[in-house]
Amino acid sequence: MRKFIFYFIFILLFLLLQTTLLQYITVYGVMPNLLIVFTIVTALIRNSTEGAAVGLISGMCMDMQFGSVKGFYALLGLYLGIAAGSVNRRMYRENLMVVIFFTFIYSVAYESVIYIINNIMSGDIRIISAFTTVILPETLYNCAVSVLLFPLVSKAGKWFDAATAKARKY
Amino acid sequence: MPRFFKSKWFIVSLITIALLIVMGVTASKSSKLNWVSDILNVPLKPVQAFFSEAGRKIDDIFAHFRDIDALIQENEALKAEIAELKEKNREYAELKSKNEELRRALNLKDEFGDYSLVGANIIAAEPGNWFHVFKVDVGERDGITVDSPVVTAGKGLVGRVMNTDSGTSNIQTIIDEESAVSGWIAKYGGGHAIVKGDLQLKEKGLCKLVYIPVEVDIEAGDIIETSGIGGIYPKGIVIGEVVEVRKTNSELDRYAIIQPAADFKSLEEVFILKSEKNNDTGSADK
């Protein structure tokens, strides 16, 4: 329950920042996607279940706010969390470089999927132009944000674990 | 088998199927599921309005320092332009009165007569980088319907209402890549063309004019208006001005860059044209 409230509050906070203040601090016309970074970082540091839950709920929030077809971002977020969480067992997860590296990989994958799905019907897919104008700058920006989110999620994770361990003692 | 029902993959596929069904249901325009969004949108509305306003204020403060040199130069240029425009204005006033006279004579109906204006404040914008969609603080309760045209105070076209909830609506702007508006090149010997958003031009607040008829002699400075074809936008709303004509391979394959009349960078307030008579005509605009 504590976990759920923590994640939910941060998802709402990031959604708010994303739709309002972040619009004013774009670099090369793009802004980072806080919710995606939050999903990826949570999945990497914690596990795929928590990552999937964060991805699903942030996706649902995005759908409610801006989706014309509701459920699309929720589904993508769910898969993103599962995918990002599935690498952590083979890696030393509490390492900033690992987090930055996978934020890069998964941001590129996520945005490419969104671009392709949105444009597949029109048949007008210009992946290189999409890559240089949106995907790459956003991904680099996302990596920078992951540096900030890493300590937050890491600390919160330790706090959850300590709370569970304490609960088990009694 | 019972273990399978508890496994992660079973839960994931269950959620996937549920979400696919939701997507299917909400894909149609007449979806009755929109109230679900209100759970989030209603409580977030005042907070977003506050944050947006704060962001604007902070941006204004920085812009103040950033732009001071540019503003001095601009001021000079504008003074010269004002003098020129005053001269032109005199000519236009004359033409306008003449036009009105002729209109009365022909008994032409004003196209905007069927609409009333609803003012709306922008409270949030789309979280991703692909689209140019923003959220305003009026919705179904204020009589806003999907596909209502949206304009600025200066009657420049902004876009259309994409979807509505009880208290908020999302506006798709004309610089969004998925937007296509039927335009009219407003000059002697003008023609129909399509105004489209473009991913690369979006950042600069520009859009594209494509499918320009071969016989039209288009050049920088030409005004593009809505054509009224398509059923969403009434005829005669100013979309923007041509700033550059680019030829690709042949004369047939040219396109123009449009500077929209609405300044999307500094947009704070828009007006939604609320239709007085409810006509559900099939539409080619999207």
How would you explain this protein's 3D organization?
The complex is a heterodimer of chains A (170) and B (286). By secondary structure, chain A is an all-alpha fold. The longest helix of chain A has 43 residues. The mean pLDDT of chain A is 85. Chain A is built from 6 helices and no strands. Chain A has one domain. Chain A starts with a helix and ends with a helix. By secondary structure, chain B is α+β, with helices and mostly antiparallel strands. Chain B has 5 helices and 12 strands. In chain B, the strands form 2 sheets. A 6-stranded antiparallel β-barrel of chain B has the order 1-2-5-4-3-12. In chain B, β4 and β5 form a beta hairpin. The longest helix of chain B has 39 residues. The interface between A and B is large, with 45 and 45 residues.
Describe the structure concisely for a colleague.
Chain A has six helices and no strands. Chain A has 170 residues and is mainly α. Chain B has helices spanning 2-6, 8-26, 35-66, 68-106, 199-202; strands at residues 115-125, 133-136, 149-151, 157-164, 169-173, 180-185, 192-196, 207-210, 223-226, 238-246, 255-260, 269-275.
